[in-house]
Specification:
heterodimer, A: about 425 residues, two-stranded antiparallel ribbon, elongated, B: 4-stranded antiparallel sheet, 9 strands
C-alpha cells in the first residue's frame, strides 16, 4: 500500500467535507475560465465586425464615434458627407470600390441603412467572409428591402412582406413613411455582426421617402410612392462611406488627404486600427472581471484551507498511528499535499465540465441575445495556465496545514492527543 | 555473546525550559524475548520514554542502543526507518485507521518498511500473513474485511497487536493497551499478547499505570518524576 493509496482512502473517508471543497473550487474555476472564454469570444466577434475595408470616411469627428455609428450603428453622425465629395473621392484612381452608407431611419427598433448593391459585393466581416443570402437576392427597385437575419427572425418577415420605415430612430406613428411601403426581396445569412440587426435599402429608396420632407418634418405637399419615382432620386448627401483600395500601401496617404480635404471637413479611419484601439479602451472591464473571478478563486482556496485545517485536529490520531508504523514527518506533509492535489484536480475537472456544460446550454441563447457565437473548443494555453495556477496555488496553500502537521508530528510523536 | 536488544546508559531527557529531568534512567538492559513492565503514574514521563525508545526524541544525555544501534547517531529519517523496520507499537486506544479495513490496518505496517514486507511475505504473501496473525489473535476471517467501527474495543486492540507484530519486528512497545478493557478482556488480551510476542521472539516493553499487571512480567521498572529510579521488585 503506497502513501498515495493511503491519501486516497483517507480522503474518501472524509468525502462529504472534501466534496463541498471540490464544488467550491469547481465554481471558481468555471468562473475564471468562463470570464476568459466570454472575453475572447466578445473580442473576436468585435474585431471581426468588419474586414477588408481600408478606410471609413465620414464628417469630421473622433475616430471612435465614426466607427460606432457607421459600423455598429450606435449613436449618430455629427454631420453628413456631400454627394459631390463622395463622388470625387470614389472616382480617384487608387480607389477600387466604395460603399455609401445613409443612416437615420428605423423600422420597429431596427436601424435602416441606405446603400448600393456594391454593399453586398464588397462588405466583408470575420475572416474575409462576404455577405450571403439566406433567401431572395439584393435590392433592385427603389422600394426593395434586404433584411438582416435577426430582423427577419424577430419580426417574422418573409420574402414579399411589406415593411414601413419610420423617420428617425423611434417608432412613432406620425413619423411613419407609411405612404411608401417597402417590399422584402432578400434575407441575409447570420453574420454575428450588426448587419444582422439592420434593414438595407437603396440610396434611392431613402431619398424617395424623404422627398416630401423639409427640415425634418413633412411638408404640406405630399407625393405618393409612384409620384416620387418621377423625381431624380440621387441623394445630395450620405452619412459615411467605406473605401477599398487598389493598393494598400497608399492607405495612410489617402487617409491624410481626406483628413485635409479642402471641400469640407472629413475624417477617415482605418477600421482595424480603430477597432483595436476602442477595444483597448474598454479592456479595463475585462480586467476588472478577471480580478473579481481571481478573488472568487482565492475565496475557494481559503475555503479549502479552512476545511483542511479543521480536519487536521481529527487527523491527529491518524498521524500518530502513521508515525508509529514508521511514517516520516515529511510523509505526513506529503499526505496532506497529496490530498489537496486530489481535491483540487477533481475541482478543476468538475469546473471544466461545468464550463462546457454551461457553454453548450447557453450557446443558442447567447447567439440570439448578443450575436456572439460561442465555440466549444479545447482549452487554450491561457486557460491551461489558469488551471495550472489553480493547482499550484492550492498546493502552496496546502503547505500551511502541511507545516502545522509536520510540527505536531514531531512534537506529539507517538502520543495520541485528543 | 549476544548483545542486549535494548540498552540504556545514563539516559536523561529534559524538555527545553524545564528545571528537572522528565526521564532519568541510569542503566537498563533487555535481552531478546524479555518482557519489561514499566510502571508510571500519569505525568511520570511514560510517553516521553516511549518516544525515546521509538526514536522520535533523542535523550538529552546518555545513550540508547537498540539492536546495537545508537539511535542518537542516526538522522531523524533514519530513526523513522529504524522504527518502521524493527519496532511495533500498540497504543492505549484509537490504534486503527478508520478508512482502512481490518486486514488493511494490519498490512499497512508493511507500507513503510520493505524489511517487514519481506519478512511477512517470505513464506506466504503479506495478506495471508496478516490473516494468520489475526486468526491467532482470535479474530475470525469474517471480520477481516469489516470496517473498523464495527469492532469492539478489545477486538480493535488485538488488530493493533497484529499490526505491531506483522513482519516480526524485534521490539514491541505497548502503551497502556489494556486501559480501555474490562478485567476479563484484559487478562485474555495479555495472554494473547504474551503468546504472540513469544512466538515472534519479540522483546516486549509494556507501559502501564496499573500495578496489578506487574506480576505477570519478569522485569519491572518504575518511573517517577524528579527521582531517578533503579529497577524495583514488586
Amino acid at each position: 500500500m503506497t502513501l498515495l493509496r493511503i491519501a486516497f482512502k483517507s480522503a474518501r473517508f472524509r468525502r462529504t467535507s472534501l466534496l463541498l471543497t471540490v464544488v467550491s473550487i469547481a465554481i471558481s474555476v468555471t468562473l475564471l475560465l468562463g470570464v476568459d472564454v466570454v472575453r475572447k469570444e466578445a473580442k473576436g466577434s468585435f474585431l471581426n465586425t468588419i474586414s477588408e475595408t481600408d478606410l471609413i470616411v465620414g464628417a469630421r469627428s473622433g475616430p471612435t464615434n465614426l466607427l460606432l455609428y457607421s459600423v455598429f450603428h450606435i449613436g449618430n453622425a455629427t454631420n453628413n458627407v456631400t454627394w459631390d465629395s463622395y463622388q470625387e473621392i470614389a472616382g480617384r484612381d487608387e480607389v477600387a470600390w466604395t460603399v455609401p452608407i445613409s443612416l437615420g431611419d428605423s423600422h420597429r427598433g431596427f436601424r435602416v441603412m441606405g446603400t448600393t448593391e456594391d454593399y453586398f459585393d464588397f462588405y466583408q466581416y470575420g475572416n474575409k467572409q462576404a455577405l450571403s443570402f439566406d433567401k431572395g437576392a439584393a435590392f433592385d427597385g427603389v422600394y426593395d428591402a434586404v433584411l438582416g437575419s435577426d430582423v427577419a427572425r424577430d419580426l417574422g418577415y418573409e420574402i414579399g412582406d411589406e415593411v414601413i420605415l419610420s423617420h428617425g430612430l423611434v417608432s412613432v406613428d406620425f413619423a411613419a413613411h407609411d405612404d411608401k411601403p417597402f417590399t422584402v426581396v432578400g434575407i441575409l445569412d447570420r453574420t454575428g455582426t450588426p448587419v444582422d440587426r439592420t434593414l438595407q435599402v437603396s440610396l434611392a429608396g431613402i431619398e424617395a421617402i424623404h422627398i416630401d420632407y423639409q427640415g425634418g418634418t413633412r411638408s404640406a405637399l405630399t407625393l405618393d410612392a409612384e409620384q416620387a419615382l418621377r423625381f431624380d432620386l440621387t441623394p445630395t448627401s450620405i452619412t459615411a462611406f467605406m473605401v477599398g483600395l487598389e493598393n494598400r500601401a497608399v492607405t495612410f496617404r489617402l487617409q491624410r488627404d481626406i483628413n485635409d480635404y479642402a471641400g469640407e471637413p472629413l475624417s477617415a479611419i482605418i477600421p482595424g486600427a480603430t477597432l483595436a484601439e476602442f477595444w483597448r479602451s474598454i479592456a479595463t472591464i475585462e480586467q476588472v472581471l478577471f480580478v473579481l473571478s481571481g478573488f472568487v478563486l482565492v475565496a475557494g482556496l481559503l475555503g479549502m484551507l479552512t476545511t483542511i485545517l479543521s480536519t487536521l485536529n481529527e487527523r491527529r490520531r491518524e498521524i500518530a498511528v502513521l508515525r508509529a508504523i514508521g511514517a516520516r514527518p515529511t510523509s505526513v506533509v506529503l499526505l496532506i499535499v497529496l490530498e489537496t492535489l486530489v481535491v483540487v484536480t477533481a475541482g478543476c475537472a468538475l469546473g471544466v465540465a461545468l464550463l462546457y456544460g454551461l457553454l453548450a446550454v447557453s450557446k443558442g441563447l447567447v447567439a440570439r441575445r448578443f450575436g456572439v457565437d460561442l465555440t466549444l473548443s479545447w482549452l487554450d494555453t491561457t486557460q491551461g495556465a489558469i488551471l495550472l495556477a489553480v493547482v499550484l496555488g492550492a498546493t502552496i496553500v496546502s503547505l500551511i496545514p502541511g507545516f502545522i502537521a509536520y510540527r505536531r508530528s514531531i512534537q506529539d510523536g507517538l502520543a495520541i492527543r485528543l | 555473546m549476544s548483545q542486549p536488544v535494548v540498552r540504556l546508559d545514563d539516559v536523561t531527557f529534559r524538555w527545553p525550559g524545564q528545571q528537572t529531568n522528565t526521564i532519568d534512567i541510569e542503566k537498563l538492559r533487555l535481552d531478546a524475548g524479555e518482557h519489561l513492565f514499566v510502571r508510571g503514574a500519569s505525568g511520570s514521563g511514560k510517553t516521553t520514554l516511549l518516544n525515546l525508545l521509538a526514536g522520535i526524541h533523542v535523550p538529552t544525555t546518555g545513550q540508547i542502543h537498540l539492536l546495537d544501534k545508537d539511535l542518537a547517531a542516526l538522522s531523524p529519517s533514519r530513526r523513522d526507518q529504524f522504527r518502521a523496520d524493527h519496532i511495533g507499537v500498540v497504543f492505549q486506544q484509537f490504534n486503527l485507521l478508520p478508512y482502512l479495513s481490518i486486514l488493511e490496518n494490519v498490512t499497512v505496517a508493511c507500507a513503510f518498511s520493505s524489511r517487514k514486507h519481506d519478512r511477512a511475505s517470505s513464506a506466504v504473501d503479506v495478506k495471508t500473513s496478516a490473516q494468520r496473525l489475526l486468526r491467532s489473535l482470535n479474530l475470525g476471517d469474517d471480520l477481516h474485511s469489516r470496517p473498523v467501527a464495527e469492532l469492539s474495543v478489545g477486538q480493535q486492540q488485538r488488530v493493533a497487536v497484529a499490526r505491531a507484530l506483522i513482519g516480526s519486528p524485534e521490539i514491541l512497545i505497548a502503551d497502556e493497551p489494556t486501559s480501555a478493557l474490562d478485567a476479563d478482556n484484559r487478562d485474555r488480551f495479555l495472554d494473547l499478547l504474551f503468546q504472540e510476542a513469544s512466538a515472534h521472539g519479540c522483546t516486549l516493553i509494556f507501559v502501564s499505570h496499573d500495578p496489578d499487571l506487574a506480576r505477570r512480567f519478569d522485569r519491572k521498572i518504575e518511573l517517577a518524576h524528579h527521582d531517578p529510579q533503579p529497577e524495583i521488585s514488586l
